[in-house]
From TrEMBL:
Pfam family name, one: MarR
PANTHER family with a match to the protein in the record: HTH-TYPE TRANSCRIPTIONAL REPRESSOR YETL (PTHR33164:SF43), TRANSCRIPTIONAL REGULATOR, MARR FAMILY (PTHR33164)
MF-aspect GO terms: DNA-binding transcription factor activity
Protein source organism: Nonomuraea rhodomycinica
SUPFAM superfamilies reported for this sequence: Winged helix' DNA-binding domain (SSF46785)
Protein name per Swiss-Prot or TrEMBL: MarR family transcriptional regulator
Domain HTH marR-type: start-end pairs: 12-140
GO terms of biological process kind: response to stress
Record InterPro entries: HTH_MarR-typ, MarR/SlyA-like, WH-like_DNA-bd_sf, WH_DNA-bd_sf
Length: 141
């Protein structure tokens, strides 16, 4: 049992290292693909995560950043004509972020680029599904 206790921290460290390495690869991939479209990495992440109308707080949560950072990114996307703020249908104090037609088109182009040579591409679809399920269980939200 002592041996099991000694190997668990090592396994945890190795898993954390692998996850960190994958996260860095994904970040570099997003950065390079976004740059080909004249976007920053943060703008690329925002477009990837804007799966439909959502509040700035929801976008910030999906981007894993502070709401002030999401506001800055949303402001730039709005200035570029890719995003609009609309009244929230259920909360008159809130606004919803909605992609413009140009923003939707750009998002589709970005998603296409992100799927090319993705860091997850070496995994078969079933393996990606398994990885997603395991990570979802490990991530406490």
């Amino acid at each position: 049992m002592t041996e099991e206790r000694e190997t668990q921290p090592q396994a945890d460290r190795e898993i954390c290292g692998l996850i960190n390495g994958l996260a860095k690869q994904i970040e570099a991939h997003v950065r390079s693909r976004a740059a080909t479209l004249g976007l920053t990495a943060s703008q690329g992440v925002a477009l990837r995560e804007l799966t439909g109308p959502m509040t700035l707080r929801e976008l910030a949560e999906r981007m894993s950043c502070e709401p002030s950072n999401a506001t800055f990114v949303a402001d730039r996307l709005e200035e570029q004509g890719y995003l609009e703020r609309h009244p929230h249908p259920g909360n008159r104090r809130a606004k919803q972020l909605v992609l413009t037609p140009a923003g939707s088109e750009l998002r589709e182009r970005l998603l296409g680029l992100l799927s090319e040579n993705s860091p997850l591409a070496p995994l078969a679809p079933e393996e990606q599904d398994t990885l997603q399920r395991l990570l979802a269980r490990a991530v406490v939200r």
